[in-house]
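Re: your question from the hallway

Yes, I did run it. Sequences:
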Amino acid sequence: MIALWTLGLLRHRPMRLLGAGFGIAVTVALLAVLGFFLVSSTASMTLRATEAVPIDWQVEAVPGADPALIDAAIRKASAVTAVQKVSYALVDGLEATTGTTVQTTGPGKVVGLTADYLTSFPKEIRLLSGSLTGVLIAQQTASNLHVGPGDAVVITRLGLPPVSVTVAGVIDMPDADAFFQGVGLPPQAAPQAPPDNVLILPMADWHRLFDGQTALRPDSTRLQFHIRLDHQGLSAQPSEAYIQVAAKAKNLEVQVAGQALVSSNLGARLDGVRGDALYATVLFLFLGLPGAVLGAALTLAITSTGAARRRLEQALLRVRGAGPSRIAGLSAAEALLVSVGGICVGLLGAAAFARLGLPDWGGTGPLMMTAGLAAAAGLALGLVAVLLPVWRQSHTTSVAAARQVVGRKTVPLWQKLWVDAILLALAAAFFGQTASTGYQVVLAPEGVAATAVDYKAFLAPALFWVGSALLVMRIVGRLVGANGAILLGLVRPVAGRLAPVVASSLAAQARRITLGVAMTAMAVSFGTSTAIFNATYQAQGRVDALLTSGADVTVFGTLAAPAATYLAKLASLPGVLAAEPMQHRFAYVGSDLQDLYGINTATIGQATALSDAFFSGGSAVQMMARLAATPDGVLVSEETVSDFQLTQGDIVNLRLMNAADHQYHAVPFKFIGVTREFPTAPKDSFLVANAAYIAEMTGNTGAEYVLMRTGSDPAAVAETVRAVVKDTPALQVKDITHVANIIGSSLTSINLTGLTRIELAFALLMASSAAGVMLALGFNERKRSFAILTAIGAKRGQLGAFLWAEGVMVALGGTVFGLLTGVSTAFILVKLLTGVFDPPPEALVMPWGWLAGFVAVVVGSVILAIALIQARVGKGAIALMRDV
Amino acid sequence: MTDRLVQTRALSKTYATADGTVSVLSGVECHIDAGDRVALIGPSGSGKSTLLHILAGLVEPSQGQVEWPALGPRDELMPRWVQTVFQAQSLFAALNVRDNIALPGLLAGQTPPDGLTPDQLLATFGLSDLALKLPEELSGGQAQRVAMLRALSVGPRLILADEPTGQLDSQTAQAFLTQVIAVADGIGAALIVATHDPATAARMQRQWSIDHGTLWADTNVMETQT
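Structure:
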């Protein structure tokens, strides 16, 4: 019997099976792909985080400790791939003579490195000029002393006579913050700024020059072990990896207690990434789950399009004596058929999609588990979609009622109880509550193993989504069911003189049409909110990358090797739309050395984008105007304003190096505004002033940086620029594409592009399914009605009036309500996920292309559905009428 | 203007099925003139419905010719000149009874003739209480009668009815048929009724008998009786 029934379904009800199977396939595919995404992105986050850390652990021996014991303890605590000893010595200062002038610096550090240190930790030092063999000097120190390779520098040791060394190379230390960090400081301690003056000696020379100082002043020298851990066996999940690394570090601390202090850079990095990983999960939940829910709802809705015929079939079975269990058995066979088919297609689609979109997924095990869970969800969905209505019908419906196709209008319970309004009010309340906490959705306190997500924050968008869906159903249900002037007005353009009767026909089917509009609206809403969130995120990612790189392409130089010497050549390169010089000097604010940027306010905007979020107390345009109107004006970072208790209008004396004597001299500036961020500037302390004033007061018109806006691929232009400046090794070229790829401090390290690509592809699929497939299946189930119209003389155009009226309702209602709720949802998501953005967006970015695409897909699928059904009905009205 | 509404010559109809070709009608020669009353009688599966559908222009014959000299080309027959009452439930499910009856007139773009508005027809046939009901709320007999009213509403010249009283008891059927004939007389429509019921067939002027696709008699009952 079951085999006979199943065969009958395959032969005579293929559309019904295909429709339900399609819905299940979409849901399974989306769940599986999202699961793949989560596994893949967290694995790649961990990988990136561990690769980005130059020195995993720094272990500092206390004076008098036995280095051999510490070395042994390190190797016992964890498998390592490199352990290098590094010696540090504090010195009173450095001195150099240029011609008749003598330059001196304040206190500094002299470091001793072994010959193979750079083999183990190549990212620590970058050669700018000269050779890596011998004495190396940091570029800022070299600039302060006005020395280069071959020049002599005198080291003023503590308690010992000064000693002279000859510089072999000038270097940059990209990781100076960690290299010179205070080891063993508590996590909440303020970070220690790296020394302004640094000299690096071969280890043998260091011992020759500083063993005596160690003997005299043991507190002035330090021995550190720089360690790279063996990353094999480290968990792919950031939280677990953090716990693993932290446990090993604690084990080492216990072993070397009283002998050494431990600083785990890798642990700190993973600590930060844990928060990002949680945000990845949050993004998955915020952006992904609505899609899966929508897929499930779509399956139920698609199944419901065949409800009338299914009811009739079951009623016939009951009349012929089939009991509830027999009917349930037959329906279970149908459910299994569509579920298994849908699951297979869904998983195959997911695998294909993931192969294209996620090339680096994290191992087979988690993927198989994800696929298994998605398949289980698909099976459950198939059973619920097919069996639940059967069960309800067999227990609550009479045979006569089961034969109803249209059904009398009744007000659903949720409408009587105003559930939609209640849900929207609750959404507003929860949104307000989350807003009051400053949108703190993810809590991953530094140094604390436990992490938390404020899952209450999910309630606002979830309630809003469901509430707005119900509100759309209420509005559309009222509008269509009332069969009033509005419906008539909407229908008349496509129905002409048939408008009244077409409107009546729609009103009688208000429930079905409302469901179609609501499903289309939710699909469009889902796609719209995802597209807007993605566009806003990408735009902010670009702002973030622009902040770091400065412009599409930036040439970073030094005081000794200013990039602006190439300005004319760079400006004339193909693909360069604008090239703008920018000074990058150093200025003492009190005793604090800060970055100072000298700009031309009139032209800076040609080469880089200045966001309003960069400034406090005015827009970017206003702040540039203010700076232009005040030649000696200076914009000061928030941190400096707070540290030095500055008030606008204050005269701030900054000490700048003068070109004539290479000495720092006080230059008065007027504090005119606050800047939060600036292209190429660090996140904490910096200053922005007029380049002309800086040049005048320092006697140096050079500009260290050149910012470029490009009209073509920045990476390609950067390659050309590198070729131009290759003769000056001190010049470094960065492009925005490269920078965007390596920023690891925020969620840009998550493959959000992959997630949104998945989301948008499925959103398009579901928008077309909700509109076109539901209409087509609905029409297919009612093809007899359309055959009747043909049989009593309706011409093709008149038949079209009924079809088009329904199509217009679904397409118009679906897109209008979908776009409205989508924009609102995007606003809520962007606000709730403020933590994802750096800096926070000023406004939503509307991806007009995508939105137009959604509308086009909905309209296109409706047109296709109507064309198909018109062709089908026109071919054999009488045959269709016989098909009950 | 000719009174010959339909004329067939050597009409045949075959259908292709999984078991081969099935002949439904073979060599049918017949005609219908204005005001004719014809009973088409024959056993189930004899080809009655197919013949009605061909005469209505809904189905094309496989061989032979069918013409509508007084009504015009096939594409212009419905809904204005020819209306069909189907054996199966044929009301538009999403419209109430009143709108269903009004539908052919709306499709034809004409104002209902006097006495043939939905409400007038419902009143004439004593079915006014059904006006606002949906088709699914009607019994089989009620749905059949409403389908007939829908056919009459446009004032056609030819009505082809397939078992229009099949789901009515004989008393109701005869009363209903009397009213249908009266309205058809009023508008001058020819009425062709396919039926198994001898009483219904006896109300028609002519009887066509059909068996295995062959129309083998064309008898004017009224003439015979007189």
